[in-house]
Structures are given as C-alpha cells and as structure tokens.
Write a structure and sequence with these properties.
With 97 residues, this protein is an alpha+beta fold. 33% of the residues lie in helices and 11% in strands. A hairpin with a 2-residue loop joins β2 and β3 (78-82). Mean pLDDT is 77; it is low at 20-31. It holds the Pfam family HTH_17.
Length: 97
C-alpha cells in the first residue's frame, strides 16, 4: 500500500507538530518572502517593510517621523505601506545611485 505522507518531513521531538510548509497562505506575523512585484493594492505592515528593506522596524518608524522613506498611512491605529509604493521607492533610490 502506498504511503501518502511526505517522506521529506523531519521527525520532531516530544510529539511536536512539524512546521507547516509555505503554501501561499500567510499567517499573522509571518515574514513574507521577498518578491520582485507586489499584488496591486497589497498593504504591508512595519515588519514586512523592514524585512523587505533589510532594516530594523525602528528604522522604518524613524524614517516615517522624519519624512524619509516610503510613504505610509494610518488604517485606524495601524500604519500600513502599499507594497507598490515601497518597491517604487527602492527603485528610485537605485536609479539615483
């Protein structure tokens, strides 16, 4: 009889469930993989912006208060950045060289 389980799964200690594989669904607080293009209208959190730019979250917040960096906006009490804006900002920095 054929076993349908994933043979590449690593055994776990103390009966812990294995980490789920990335399937495209995003869990809250999980880092998003870098990609060249963002979905239209997709909003990023400070963690996602910091991860994409390779800087600490505090740097993104400092940039925001000083007027530097990609433009973010408030959604209620949360700050969000449009993914396309962050990517366009980095491309402009690269162009300016």
């Amino acid at each position: 009889m054929k076993d349908d389980t994933d043979s590449s799964a690593q055994p776990t200690l103390w009966g812990e469930a294995p980490e789920p594989r990335a399937t495209g669904a995003r869990s809250r607080g999980a880092a998003r993989p870098h990609r060249a293009a963002a979905e239209a209208g997709e909003l990023w959190t400070v963690e996602e912006v910091a991860d994409y730019l390779g800087v600490p979250k505090q740097t993104v917040y400092c940039w925001r208060t000083s007027g530097y960096g990609p433009a973010g906006f408030r959604v209620g009490k949360h700050v969000r950045w449009r993914a396309s804006t962050v990517i366009a900002w980095t491309l402009e920095l690269e162009r300016q060289g």
